[in-house]
Amino acid sequence: MRPRERNAVSVPRAHGSVPNAWQRELGRLVFAARHTSIVALAVLAAVVPSIGPNRWWIAGAVLGLVLPWDLLMHWWTRRTGRPPVVMFLANQLFGAAFIALAPTVYVPTLLALVADIGLAIVIFGRRTSGTALAFGVLVVGCAAFSVDTHEPLVGMFGYVIAGASLIAGVGALFESERRLRNRHLALLGDVDAIVWEAVHTPTRRYTFASERANAILGFPATQWTDSGFWQDHIHPDDLERVLAEDADAFRGRHDVELEYRMISADGRVVCLRDRVTVVIDAAGQAVGLRGVVIDITAQRGAEERFRQYADLVERIQMALLVARLVDPADSRSLEVVAANPMACALSPHGLDDLVGYRVVDVFPRLVKLGLHEHLARVVATGEPYDLDDLEPDRAAGGVVHYSVHAFPLGPDLVGVSLDDVTGPSLAAQALRRQATHDTLTGLPNRALLNDRLRRALREATQNCTTAALLVMDLDQFKEINDALGHHAGDELLVAMSRRLEDMLGDSGLIARLGGDEFAILLTENADRAGATAVAQLVERALEQPFEVEGISLQTNASLGIALYPDHATDPELLAQRADVAMYQAKRSAHSFAMYAAEHDHSSVRRVTLLGELRRAVEFDEFRLFHQPTISLATGALVGTEALVRWQHPVHGLMGPSEFIDLAEVSGMIHPLTRWAFKSALYQAGAWAEPGEEPTIGVSINLSVRNLYDPELTAWMEALLVESNFPPSLVTLELTESEVMDDPFLAVEVLGQLRALGVHTSIDDFGTGHSALAYLKHLPIDEIKIDQSFVAGLRTSRADETIVRAIIDLGHNLGLTVVAEGVEDDETLQRLRDLGCDRAQGFHLSPPVTCHQIPTVASATKAPVGRASVARQ
C-alpha cells in the first residue's frame, strides 16, 4: 500500500483557491439567474416605450453582446471552476452603457450593479468587489453625467453608499464564514479518513467528500459527486451485500457500520470501514446520509498474517510457549503468558491452557533439570540458549527427548520451543552403540577397544603408569558350531560374555573382537602380576560348564598378554604382540602366555619387509587392481576401487594389511602414496577413447601420516596438471578412525585438497563413532558404509538400522553414500530400497586389472561417471 500523504489537503483561500462544492452550486444558480435576467432585460427594453427611441438598439445589444458575453463567462467558469474577475468589471461597463443609451432606467441599473457588487463579494471577497465598485463609480458616473438623467449625483451617492455598505458588512460576514469553512476543511483534511455526505436516490450519491479521498483511493473529491461513482468502484464481490445493507439502514433509519472493498484509481484493492449515519429531518423522515470512511487495508493484512501465524503456532508439531519473568531476582517467578496445544500437552496436569501459571508449577520435570534458571538467564542477558537433547519426562512408550531453543522476546519475556527429537536421538544413540558395541553380546567391539586403548596409552604415558592388553581365543569353538549349529555357538558366546563381565566387574574393559576372539584392557593393577591374576580368573571362570539348549558345554580359552611399555609403545604393536602371545599359548598348550620376543617369528618377517619396502618402490613391485563401483539407481558402472598389492618376489602377491602399517611406521607411506596416486591417474586416463575426455574416476586412500606431508597438496596439484586428468574424477579417502587421530589437521588438509577440485571421502564409516561429532565440519563429498554392517543387512535388524541411519545422515548432509562388501543379490536389493547411491563387492564384480575396466564399463551399457576408490 502506498503511504498516505498527511498534508494532501489544500486549504481554500479568499483568492485563487479551487472552489468547493458550495461555490460550484452557487455559480450554477447565479449564471442561471443571470441568463434569465439578461433575456428579460432585452424583452423589457423592446416592449417598454418609456425607454426611448433606442429601445430596439438596446434590446439587440443585450441579446447580441451581453448574452454571448455572459455565456462565455459561464463556459469559462465551468472550465476553470471560478468566474474571472474581469466579468464583474465588464458588468459595470455594461451598466454604464445601458444608462447612456436609456437614461430613464438609471435607478434600476444602479440597483442591478449594486447586486452585482454583492455577488462579487460572495465569490471574490472585499478586495475584488471594492475594485469593481471603484470602476463602476468611474464609468457609471461618466455615463450618468453625460446624459440627461434624473438627479445623477443623488443616484451615484446612493450607489456608492450601498456598495460600500455591502462590502463593509456582507464582506466582513462572508470573510468570517469563509475562514470558518476553510478551518473546517483543513481539519477534515488532517483527519485520516474520508468524511462524506450523500443522498439516497435510490442508491447513495455523494454530495460532498473530503479531500482525503484522493490520498486513500486516488480519486479527487469532485469525482465522488458524480452519479453512480460509489457503486461503480465497489469490489464486485462486495457490491450486492453493501448496497443491500446501505439501503436497509436508510429505510430503517438506523446507523450502520459497513466493511467492504473498493478499487482505487491505480487498480489496488483497498479495504474500507464505513460508519454511516442516517440524517433525519424534523418530521422523522430519512433525508440523507453522512459518514466517515477509514482505510483498514493494513489492519486487515496484519490480521490475516496474525491468523496465519496463529494457525501455524496452533498446528505446528512443536511445543511453543512464552513466559514472563515477574521478579528478575527469582527464576521461579517465570509465568506463562502464551502456549500452543503441544506445550499444554507436555504438562503432567492435563491443562488445556497454561496461561497465568508459573513454569515451575506446570513443568515440574523441567524445573528439576534447571531449565527455568537458563530461561531467566536469557531474559537477563538477552542471549539465546540451546540444548540439543533434553529428557524432561517419560512417556508411556519410554523416554522422550526434546531439543530446546530459548530466545529473548522483550525486556522481561522469553520464548521457548521444544521439538520432539526422540526418533533422531534414539537413532543416534543406537547408531553410536551399534558402531561401538558387538550386536550379539553387547560388549564393546574392536573399534571401541582401539579407541580406549589409544586413550589408555596416552594417559599411561602422561602418568608414567602401565597398561595391559589380554587377547583371548576360545578352544573347541569350531567343533561346537559344527556339531550344534551357529545358534548354539551364539548362545555360548553370550553366556560366556556375561560370566566374564561378572568376573571382571569394573576393573577392566572386555571387548569382542569378532568370532570367538575377545580382549581385556587393564589400566589398574596392569603390571605383570596384575595381568597374570586376571588371566587366572578367566581360566577359573571357564572351568564351570555352560548350559546351552539343555546341553552342558565345556570350553577353554587361550590368552596372550602384552604390557605397555614393556612390550610395545603404540596401540597397534601392543595388540599385535598380545596376539603373538595368544598363539604361543595355543602352541604351548597353556591357558595363557606373556609376550616374549623370541617367540615372535612374525617379527623377523616384519623386519625383513621393512627393509624391502624401499626396494619395492624402486623396482616397481607394487600393483593396482580395480574393483568396479555400480550405481544402484541405473545399474551402470560409475567408477572403480583401486586396490594396492605388493608383488613380492618371495612371498608372492601380498595384500595391504601385510605392509601398509610397515610403510606408515617406516615413513615409506609417502612415496607409496605418490606411486599409487600417479599410477591410478594415468591408468584411468588410458580408459578414455582417443580424443575423448576421461569419464571413469579413481580415488587413492590416504594415510593419516600423509596429512603431515607439507608438500602433499602442491605435489598433487602439479600431477593433476601434468597428467591432464580432470580433478573432479579424483577422490581421496581417509578411514574414519584415521580422521579421528587428528580431526583438526584432517579438516585443514582435506580442505586444501578439496580446493584443487578433487573429491574427498570417509571410508569404513560407522566404525569410528567419534567422527559423528566432526562430520558436519569435514570438507567431504562421500561416505562409505563399512562392509561389516552391509554383511549383516540380511540377518540383523540392528545392522539394517545402522545402514539406514548412515544413508539418511549422508543424504541430509548432501553426501554420496557407497556400500562396501555386497556379496549377494538380496543385500543389493535391500540397499537399493534403502536409497543407497552406490555399491561394490564380489557379487557385482571382483577386482580386475586396469586393462579390464573398459570391458566392464562397456558391459554395463550405461554412461560412466565419477568413481570412488578405496584401499583394501
What is the arithmetic mean of pLDDT? 80
**Which structural class fits the helix and strand makeup?**
alpha+beta
Number of distinct beta strands? 26
H/I helix tally? 31
Gyration radius over CA: 52 Å
What percent of residues are in strands? 15-25%
**What is the terminal separation in angstroms?**
67 Å
Strand order of the largest sheet: 20-19-18-26-25-24-23-22-21
Residue stretches low in confidence (pLDDT < 50, at least 5 long) are 1-20, 394-398, 862-872
Sheet having the most strands: 9 strands, mixed
Helix content: 40-55%
Protein architecture, described:
With 872 residues, the chain is of the alpha+beta class. It has 31 helices and 26 strands. The strands form five sheets. The protein has a nine-stranded mixed beta sheet, sandwiched between helices. Strand 12 (509-514) and strand 13 form a beta hairpin. Helix 2 packs antiparallel against helix 3 (85-101), helix 4 runs antiparallel to helix 5 (126-146) and helix 19 crosses helix 20. It is elongated, with a radius of gyration of 52 Å. The two termini are 67 Å apart. The model is unreliable at 1-20, 394-398 and 862-872 (pLDDT under 50).
